[in-house]
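Late entry, evening session. Most of the bench is empty. Finally got around to the prediction I had been postponing all week. Sequence below, unchanged from the version circulated by S.P.
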Amino acid sequence: MTEGKQKTWLITGADKGLGFQTARTALERGDNVVVTVLAADGVHDLAADYPDRLRAFHLDARDQARVGTVVARAVEAFGRIDVLVNNAGYGLVALAEATGADKYRPLFEVNFFGLVEITRAVLPIMRKQRSGHVINLSSYAGFIGTPGFGFYAATKFAVEGYSESLSREVKHLGINVTVIEPGGFRSDFAGASLDQNIDTLGEDYAPVAETVADYSARRHGKQPNDPELFGQALCAVADAEEPPFRLPLGRDAHAAILKDIEEVTDELERWKELSFSTHRPL
């Protein structure tokens, strides 16, 4: 895809936050946009302003049976899908030992399995077109695990592994895949979209619990990145002739990932002799 050509976007979880901002930016520049929302079909704050170029369909990311219907209606509305933005998701702050399946399985259903199913539904369309761009929302937590975010990071690590393999399966079909790794954006991620489930389990975990228990209060409204600029960045990625596979967004994400790469590199070098010790020449 090239800049200046009208595109059709399908953006999941676009009721608010970064998905909403991406939809608005794409509409403002003249593209067609299909959004999935938790509200009823057609209900979206941008619907009245863009009656001809916006379609909103209800979809709960856990409702895999409805995915095919939504994708079919998107194609019926605009004839094609050029950009899929898998944005639907939420966060979980929780200690690994204290968190049961009732908390972490729904997180995977939304953040990972829902993303996989809508991608599977869209790929045949892009394959037929011999063009398309799948943009999957990860996080710098998809590159770096931190205390209290083990399960959230696990969902995003899964997104990154899936996306990297997928990118190598579909590149020859004219389909690009990009993973976006946002830093802290001043959206509702540290507010309503964040499930906090901190249990200290006594004194053993008290230091960790104290660090993460007030995450929302410390972060919400104070994040360093502007959500209104997020959509512009995604449009730039969608327009690129050779888009990146991995794109951190925000100086905070970029710096954190570089630091982690340096630490991994140092550790690999430090333990290289033991790593090589299992090699058996043919």
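Two things to note before I forget:
The mean pLDDT is 91.
The domain at 8-276 is CATH 3.40.50.720 (Rossmann fold).
Will write this up properly tomorrow.
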